[in-house]
């Protein structure tokens, strides 16, 4: 009976709209699993949040059963930064805070809101943390950029698993220490009983890409093939990205073409498009983008790659069409990077007035890249007034880059005599 009810509940939550003002539960004594499923499948809170639904139980039904240890992790994951400490206090009050599953969720939830101090306090209060809890606190420290602390905690773990190694490798890559990530990978290969998976190998490939280490990347690719790991969406995308960033676009293309249609998701297509743009293969880049649009919806990074390709090739009209299609057909709001590409595109083509007009209509504060593009374009046209204005704004945004701007301005004055 319980198994049937659980299956039915899981199925219904896929069809049920939890924001509906009334939810009807016909079972006389819903077990905790039912409530947990409804909580898990409730959509993320919106702003402002919808009013909570009224739950109608059968007449004369006994009070609902108390929550279990699987109820609160879902609540913790959906809690706002201000709601998390009171919920934590309630867990302590009802003696649920010592459950390993809850403790791990507390650490993860605090780190998600960048509250590493509270995450560390939760961990330090655990007498004998299990491996998932160790991995959670290591990941929390890495997410906060505390690489040294994460290393100390990692070395204190009694026994590492693939999650432990993957977290450390990925954390080193995100902190910019790709060399350290590769050293960890070599140690991981020497460890006993630690099997690689697609996520650990993806992190290693990211390290190779960050170092521009083509030969190491090829060896990792060979290891993937020899170990029997399938080049799925995760590994395929990482391989395409690695080969492109290491200067071997042909190998990137071979990996991409060898992926199955089901594995070429938007991330894989985007990696190929950005790689082609990076190598100046504009025609292939735009052709690849057309192939993507026939199959699925591009994302913001996809458009960024296409706009960069147009900027480097001087394709002003095409770039403007893509920029307008991104906002209109695909309904993606431009970010500062997209505006930067368009300003660069106009500036390279000598259309400084259009570039400045776009900057004035952006609705966000221009960054150093935007003003640098204006400066470069106006410098090429010996437009001293626009150069001076761009340098003044560049000094405000990023003073370090303004020195090169002053050199460019002096060259403009020299051209003007």
Automatic annotation (TrEMBL):
Annotated segments matching region Disordered: 1-71
Biased composition (Low complexity): 8-28
Keyword rRNA-binding attached: no
Repeat region (PPR), residues: 161-191
GO biological process entries: RNA modification
InterPro entries the UniProt entry points to: PPR_At4g14850-like_plant, PPR_rpt, TPR-like_helical_dom_sf
Repeat listed as a keyword: yes
Biased composition (Pro residues): 45-67
One Pfam family here: PPR
Coiled coil: none
Keywords in alphabetical order: Repeat
GO molecular function, one term: RNA binding
Name of protein: Pentatricopeptide repeat-containing protein
Source organism per UniProt: Acorus calamus (Sweet flag)
Record gene name: PCMP-H82
């Amino acid at each position: 009976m319980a198994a049937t009810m659980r299956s039915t509940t899981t199925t219904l939550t896929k069809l049920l709209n939890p924001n509906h003002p009334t939810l009807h539960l016909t079972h006389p004594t819903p077990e905790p699993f039912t409530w947990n499923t409804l909580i898990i499948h409730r959509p993320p809170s919106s702003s402002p949040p919808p009013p909570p639904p009224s739950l109608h139980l059968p007449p004369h039904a006994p009070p609902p059963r108390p929550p279990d240890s699987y109820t609160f992790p879902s609540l913790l994951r959906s809690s706002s930064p201000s709601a998390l400490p009171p919920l934590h206090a309630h867990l302590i009050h009802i003696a649920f805070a010592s459950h390993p599953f809850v403790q791990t969720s507390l650490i993860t939830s605090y780190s998600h809101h960048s509250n590493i101090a509270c995450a560390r306090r939760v961990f330090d209060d655990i007498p004998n943390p299990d491996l998932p809890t160790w991995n959670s606190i290591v990941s929390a420290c890495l997410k906060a950029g505390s690489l040294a602390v994460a290393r100390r905690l990692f070395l204190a773990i009694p026994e590492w698993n693939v999650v432990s190694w993957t977290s450390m490798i990925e954390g080193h890559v995100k902190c910019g220490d790709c060399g350290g990530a590769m050293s960890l990978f070599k140690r991981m290969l020497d460890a006993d009983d630690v099997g690689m998976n697609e996520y650990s190998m993806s992190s290693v490939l990211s390290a190779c890409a960050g170092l521009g280490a083509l030969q190491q990347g090829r060896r990792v690719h060979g290891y993937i093939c020899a170990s029997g790991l399938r080049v799925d969406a995760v590994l395929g995308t990482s391989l395409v990205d690695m080969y492109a960033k290491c200067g071997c676009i042909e190998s990137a293309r071979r990996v991409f073409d060898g992926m199955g249609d089901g594995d070429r998701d938007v991330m894989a297509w985007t990696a190929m498009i950005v790689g082609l743009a990076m190598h100046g293969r504009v025609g292939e880049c735009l052709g690849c983008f057309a192939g993507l649009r026939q199959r699925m919806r591009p994302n913001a990074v996809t458009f960024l790659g296409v706009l960069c390709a147009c900027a480097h090739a001087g394709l002003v009209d095409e770039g403007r069409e893509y920029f307008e299609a991104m906002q209109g057909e695909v309904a993606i709001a431009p970010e500062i990077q997209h505006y930067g590409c368009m300003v660069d595109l106009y500036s390279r083509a000598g259309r400084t007035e259009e570039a400045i007009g776009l900057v004035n209509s952006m609705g966000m504060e221009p960054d150093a890249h935007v003003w640098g593009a204006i400066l470069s374009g106006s410098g090429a046209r010996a437009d001293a007034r626009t150069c001076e204005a761009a340098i003044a704004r560049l000094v405000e945004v990023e003073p370090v880059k303004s020195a090169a701007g002053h050199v460019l301005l002096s060259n403009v004055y020299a051209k003007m005599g």
